[in-house]
Specification:
The chain is an alpha+beta fold. The longest helix has 25 residues. Helix content is 29%, strand content 25%. Helix 4 packs across helix 5. The N and C termini lie far apart (54 Å).
């Protein structure tokens, strides 16, 4: 399986992806699921992929050369378009093209055309933008209310992001959030695995040198995982135990108007039929 996450905060963007693919119990391999498209000083874009690996690889390679006429204008590529929105439209067109080429054969073999993508970055003076692209080529854009997207095994890493992330989060804190979200997924799902690809992009720079491939020996990630686990345990242990006495300040057994627990008490003198 896969876990990919992308965050957009005011200070920049963070992209992270695992690299495990699983085609069965004895077919576990490592493949990159992140592609960076960069022209320093002009544009910086990142593509994350989840789903059928062959489809994802076809899409990301074709995307570099695909020429699409948008609204009847001159054909453009992701290297020539002036907005991230149009770049996302070209990506959607590329997905549909791959579907047209490979979809019939895949469906005839009983395989779904399944690939979900995250695409984000910045072009020129335009603001940063982040998109979640579905297998049909349509997409939605991140907003201040929803400033991150996840694909693949998303459920384990989402609580960390929901609790800690906001558009005002500093960029380095956002990077920590992404790594903790990834660690939570690694902890709970064996189908997601190291190494992790990480890119941290500062708004307005139109390039990034903050790229890392994180394996099990990475000193920062090892420290982060251990510290997070220890502090979670300490926070848990510091919480009060459940209090059953209704005279306590925060009793667990409190009157509820919604319902009462269904309970049948059998007394020794009751006749059993």
């Amino acid at each position: 399986m896969t876990y990919c996450v992308a965050l957009k905060v005011a200070a920049g963007m963070v992209f992270a992806s695992d690299s495990r693919t699983n085609a069965g119990f004895d077919q576990i391999s490592t493949f990159r699921k992140m592609m960076v498209y960069e022209r320093p000083g002009d544009r910086f874009m990142v593509l994350l992929s989840a789903g059928n690996l062959s489809i994802s690889q076809s899409i990301r390679e074709l995307l570099q050369v695909e020429r699409v006429s948008l609204d009847g204008s001159e054909p453009q590529t992701i290297w020539s378009t002036q907005t991230m929105f149009d770049a996302a439209r070209i990506l959607g067109h590329t997905m549909r093209r791959v579907n047209d080429m490979d979809g019939p054969a895949l469906r005839a073999a009983g395989i779904d055309f399944a690939s979900t993508l995250i695409f984000g970055g910045q072009i020129g003076n335009e603001a940063m933008r982040l998109f979640l692209v579905y297998s049909t080529g349509n997409f939605i854009e991140a907003t201040p209310e929803t400033c991150f997207f996840q694909i693949g095994e998303a459920k384990y890493g989402k609580p960390v992001l929901d609790r800690l992330l906001s558009p005002k989060t500093p960029l380095q804190d956002a990077a920590k959030c992404a790594l903790l979200s990834m660690d939570s997924t690694l902890k709970s799902n064996v189908s997601v695995g190291l190494p992790i690809d990480l890119v941290v992009y500062q708004a307005g720079t139109l390039q990034s040198e903050n790229l890392a491939c994180i394996d099990a020996s990475n000193p920062y990630f090892t420290m982060l995982r251990q510290s997070w686990s220890e502090r979670l345990s300490a926070a848990f242990e510091s919480l009060p135990n459940p209090l059953w006495d209704t005279t306590d300040a925060h009793p667990l057994r409190a009157t509820s108007e919604r319902y009462e627990v269904l309970r049948k008490i059998h007394n020794p003198g009751d006749k059993i039929i």
